[in-house]
């Protein structure tokens, strides 16, 4: 680097000069790191050690390092986001094989184009019809044609909630 130093960092206050979004604050503090001749692993380790040091000094808490790491592809595949909230462990499960013979047009069109059908497995929650409809509406807002939410419950209740969508083929696979 120009100053002859192989690395440095600075803490800077920043203001976003772009359109605001729900997941972005207009003002924030940024850790700016400049390093020469480095790789991804070195930067991740450097940041982990720095954060562990800061937490120890400020909060007197020891952070367990290394932090959990996840590739971009795994984050998108399992959570549908590159910034997943891991507190809830709601991984998207592939259920495309359950719908291989489906006659449902919206699913058939996704599968025929090489798309996938995913599901969130939610346990220990008793969904009402209105709960279910809110989840489906939210899914359609996020991914209009690529995501169908299938709520895990006993087949009889699912058939009552979704009589037009619960196909005999799916019912047979679910019961076996």
Rg, rounded, reads 23 Å
Provide a count of the helices.
6
Low-confidence regions: none
Q: List the domain count as a whole number.
A: 2
Task: Write the H/E string, N to C.
Answer: EEHHEHEHHH
Lateral strand order in the biggest sheet: 1-2
Molecular shape? elongated
| Main structural class | alpha+beta
What amount of the residues lies in strands? 5-15%
Tell me the distance between the termini: 63 Å
Average pLDDT confidence is 79
Overview of this structure, please?
By secondary structure, this protein is an alpha+beta fold. It has two domains: 7-59, no CATH class; 72-175, no CATH class. The protein is built from six helices and four strands; from the N terminus they run ββααβαβααα. The protein has a two-stranded antiparallel sheet with strand order 1-2. A two-stranded antiparallel ribbon has the order 3-4. It is elongated and about 65 Å long. The mean pLDDT is 79.
What is the element layout, followed by pairings?
Elements: E1 7-15, E2 27-35, H1 40-59, H2 72-79, E3 92-94, H3 105-112, E4 118-120, H4 129-142, H5 155-161, H6 168-175
Antiparallel strand pairs: 1-2, 3-4
Notable traits:
single chain; 176 residues; alpha+beta; two-stranded antiparallel ribbon; two-stranded antiparallel sheet; elongated
